[in-house]
Here is the input.
Amino acid sequence: MAARASAPPNRPGPPAAPAVDPLVPAPLPLEAEEYLSWLSAEKGRSTNTLAAYRRDLRLYQGWLTRRHLALDAVRAADLSAYVTTLRDGGRAASSVARCLVPVRGLHRFLVDEGLVDHDPGADFDAPRVPSGLPKALTEDEVTRLLERVVGQDPIARRDRAVLEVLYGTGARISEVAGLSLPDIDLDGRMVRLFGKGAKERIVPLGRCARDALGEWLAPGGRDELEPDRWARRGDADAVFLNQRGGRLGRQGLWGIVRRHGDEVGLRGTLSPHVLRHSCATHMLDHGADIRAVQELLGHASISTTQVYTLVSSQRLQEAYRDAHPRARRPG
Here is the structure.
């Protein structure tokens, strides 16, 4: 009888990877609630911004609780350790930077209110986020997108107006969703937008955007989607309606942009914000003053708008290299 092979001795396996410290949200202390209330009342932060800040602060509070750290005991080294936890959890640099905004703001608020005597964020070097250039469509791609929406039925008129307004004004998706009928002046070719912090600005309507809006607001357009009875207060004044007769929200606007983008081969590259980027980039390509673009987009700081000058410069260099016969070495 053949000898039975002996079982190999038990050997220890490779060492287990260190467990990532989980981030578990915790209820916010009174000081943090006061900070969020201050942001709402004094700074005019939007509901969406406050909700995002609350989520980030609850994660931060959970991290502090696990370490038995009170807010007044946090130091710069603790913030560095928190950044390490966020990174170990797989968050991108941009996500880490975003999570730190309300955290640093909270500690600064506590000092300003005299609740603590030390701001750990003042001694803390926040991680840098690699700067990326906004993605913009070419003018041919925009033309192909806008010319794709044909027909005179109510949905075609609405979708055409949505795309023309997003590209023609450079408005944010939330600003377009919030448009009401009194905000539109077709005769004066102007539209009133309410941006971040409820800041109001008046921007021009180009010919194409004005014509598309005029078709949508004319008989056979918006009135075809009006319900017999408005479900919510404020829907009766909404510029853009969904098929149920309610105000078209952010998700509905996203769906319109994505659907028509897919139809012209822009799947995965088109969003409402890309149309905003494209508006700014194309204006600068054609010689617009950067201050005018800043005013159009509603940027609080000119530095935010200056990134588009980099895009225009990059596109100019690419066009030069591709077109000029002596821009490249032979071969």
